[in-house]
């Protein structure tokens, strides 16, 4: 509990909402386990503002804190508030001042040991899975295109900003109003209407771009939706990192109990990989102690370490020596493909920086830092970018990890108050791809110099013990290992075909997109990237910068991406994965 980032005071802001019809088609309460809300204090309404705009339709005569919180969670809100013995409200911001705790003195109808505010006084609870919102600006809203707003099931975005002047509406004014209200979704419609929401209403569908054809009343060079059509925007920073139904990245069979105070990610370090394992005649028994010991790291709460657009890296395992440092590097390098896949244009270009950072870790591991090889030392020198938060608290537990036996955990630092989910994921494979980057002198690509600098995702040993021996291989394109595609030994060429396709898609989405002349922001730019797949063995010069000039037209970029794809399928046709990943943890 102590490790939870409790945002002490509730965020107060007055949303520009007048006449709210927020009760259209509410979503059901959240029935899945979720991190409990944290009590924020007692708040009062002033000046006729609604403290929280969404009023629950659930009866108040048996209301409890748990019921109200579940309803707010299910509907995507950050705050839950209870007033007058059990009327439940939800909202993104708390539009009123904190008042003396003693003013929240009415017991809840459904549980007399809980407080349900007072007369126009609210007991407010906060979902701890949101990021702090202070730094979010209208620049953080990404356009989602044109969407319908003509469903019989209610509006796409529920909160109409009727205090924003329709005659002078611009996109910026609408985004600002939604941002002030803490709303992740914003939309403009019919030239002069502005809507905000925490979720997109049921029945909202993508519409042809041409449907959004009405100029904004306040700036005719912008489009403000159309007839029953919204220009929709989202600020991911204002959405919960763990919405209802969220599953922690690694939980194996021991799922967290609903009332647990922490979710946990676990990941592990590589075994002692002695590089002298080439031609040994007498095989050492498979169960060497070196490959069975590993360290799992519990991250509280699981959050973003490095942020690129819509993507957040999964926190690297803690390290304190060369070996565990190498594990963190592997973990980092295996995350890069997921960045390219998920970050979204244009921030995806920053994924190159993330790859460089991974390469820096490998250099760091080998640099014999005077202060000792530690994650905190490295983070001090090269802090993660794009994210305002400090690295999350990590708790390290040493366990014995073998696929079949239950780990007799030798706990070195027992976590004080957190629940740890035991995991069968161990250790981290090195990011050595079984698939080959194709070469083509005509187009200029080859190993170490893929089109646009965008590498193939890694296909290597599966890091989940449960999958052995049926699926020894895995394509690392998702932070959640369970969501990555896994392959049997006979499926290696399919795995590489998938990796070729993934690279092709990233090539088109990132490189060709960057070569478009229209915005002209990236065309002609030089992208540099270090080789993050290579562990900088002993020397600091290994991770040299490679540079790629994005100087194709969109058409010729796509031609190159396609050519690389076709070549990629060709060279990887016969991949068998023979001798690779012979047993769990042996790689
Ligand atoms: C009533 O609330 C208290 C305090 O939150 C809780 O410990 C208890 O389990 C609740 N009782 C019921 C019946 O929900
Ligand atoms: C959305 O609408 C569909 C189709 O009418 C329905 O099946 C589904 O339950 C609705 N979802 C919610 C959350 O209301
Ligand atoms: C009108 O919108 C265009 C396009 O977004 C922008 O470049 C311009 O600065 C805006 N003009 C005013 C007066 O806000
Ligand atoms: C693009 O850049 C590369 C590397 O800088 C260069 O070799 C090539 O000639 C350039 N192509 C065009 C069309 O400018």
UniProtKB/TrEMBL annotation:
Signal peptide bounds: 1-22
Q: Which InterPro entries match?
A: Sialate-O-sulfotransferase, WSC_carb-bd
Which keywords fit this entry according to its UniProt record?
Repeat, Signal
**Residues in domain WSC?**
36-128, 140-236
Q: Which SMART domains match?
A: WSC
Q: What are the TM regions of this chain, as residue ranges?
A: none
Q: Where is the composition biased (Low complexity)?
A: 248-289
Where are the annotated segments for Disordered? 247-289, 404-424
Tell me if Transport is a UniProt keyword of this record. no
State the protein's name.
WSC domain-containing protein
């Amino acid at each position: 509990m102590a490790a939870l980032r409790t945002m002490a005071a509730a965020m107060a802001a007055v949303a520009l909402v007048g006449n709210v019809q927020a009760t259209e088609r509410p979503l059901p309460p959240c029935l899945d386990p979720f991190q409990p809300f944290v009590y924020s204090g007692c708040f009062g309404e002033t000046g006729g503002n609604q403290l929280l705009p969404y009023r629950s339709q659930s009866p108040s005569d048996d209301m409890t804190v748990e019921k109200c919180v579940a309803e707010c969670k299910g509907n995507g809100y950050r705050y839950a508030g209870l007033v007058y013995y059990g009327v439940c409200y939800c909202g993104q911001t708390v539009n009123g001042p904190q008042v003396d705790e003693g003013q929240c003195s009415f017991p809840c109808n459904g549980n007399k040991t809980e407080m349900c505010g007072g007369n126009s006084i609210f007991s407010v609870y906060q979902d701890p899975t949101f990021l702090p919102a202070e730094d979010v600006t209208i620049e953080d809203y990404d356009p989602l295109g044109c969407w319908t707003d003509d469903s019989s099931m209610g509006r796409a975005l529920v909160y109409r900003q009727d205090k924003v002047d329709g005659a002078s509406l611009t996109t910026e004014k609408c985004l600002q109003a939604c941002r002030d209200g803490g709303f992740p979704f914003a939309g403009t419609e019919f030239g002069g209407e502005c809507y905000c929401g925490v979720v997109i209403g049921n029945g909202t569908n993508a519409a042809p771009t041409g449907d959004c054809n009405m100029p904004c009343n306040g700036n005719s060079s912008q489009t403000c939706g159309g007839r029953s059509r919204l220009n929709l925007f989202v600020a991911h920073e204002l959405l919960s990192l763990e919405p209802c139904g969220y599953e922690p990245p690694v939980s194996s069979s021991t799922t967290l109990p609903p009332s647990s105070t922490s979710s946990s990610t676990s990941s592990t370090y590589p075994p002692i990989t002695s590089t002298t394992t080439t031609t040994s005649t007498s095989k050492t028994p498979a169960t060497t102690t070196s490959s069975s010991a590993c360290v799992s790291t519990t991250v509280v709460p699981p959050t973003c370490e490095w942020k690129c657009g819509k993507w957040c890296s999964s926190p690297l395992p803690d390290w304190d020596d060369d070996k565990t440092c190498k594990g963190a590097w592997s973990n980092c390098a295996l995350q890069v493909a997921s960045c390219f896949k998920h970050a979204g244009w244009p921030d995806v270009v920053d994924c190159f920086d993330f790859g460089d950072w991974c390469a820096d870790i490998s250099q760091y591991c080998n640099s014999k830092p005077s202060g000792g090889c530690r994650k905190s030392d490295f983070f001090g020198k090269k802090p993660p970018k794009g994210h305002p938060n400090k690295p999350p608290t990590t708790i390290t537990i040493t366990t014995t990890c073998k696929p079949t036996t239950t780990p007799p955990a030798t706990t070195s630092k027992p976590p004080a108050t957190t629940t740890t989910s035991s995991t069968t994921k161990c250790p981290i494979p090195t990011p050595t791809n079984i698939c080959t980057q194709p070469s083509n002198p005509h187009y200029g690509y080859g190993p170490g110099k893929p089109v646009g600098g965008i590498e193939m995702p890694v296909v290597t040993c599966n890091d989940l013990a449960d999958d052995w021996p049926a699926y020894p291989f895995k394509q690392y394109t998702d932070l959640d290992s369970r969501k990555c595609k896994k392959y049997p030994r006979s499926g290696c060429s399919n795995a590489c075909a998938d990796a070729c396709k993934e690279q092709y898609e990233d090539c088109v989405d990132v490189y060709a997109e960057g070569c478009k002349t229209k915005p002209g922001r990236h065309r002609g730019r030089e992208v540099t990237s270090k080789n993050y797949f290579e562990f900088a063995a002993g020397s600091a010069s290994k991770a040299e910068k490679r540079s790629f000039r994005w100087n194709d037209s969109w058409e010729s970029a796509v031609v190159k991406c396609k050519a690389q794809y076709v070549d990629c399928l060709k060279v990887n046709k016969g991949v068998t994965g023979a001798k690779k990943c012979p047993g769990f943890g042996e790689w």
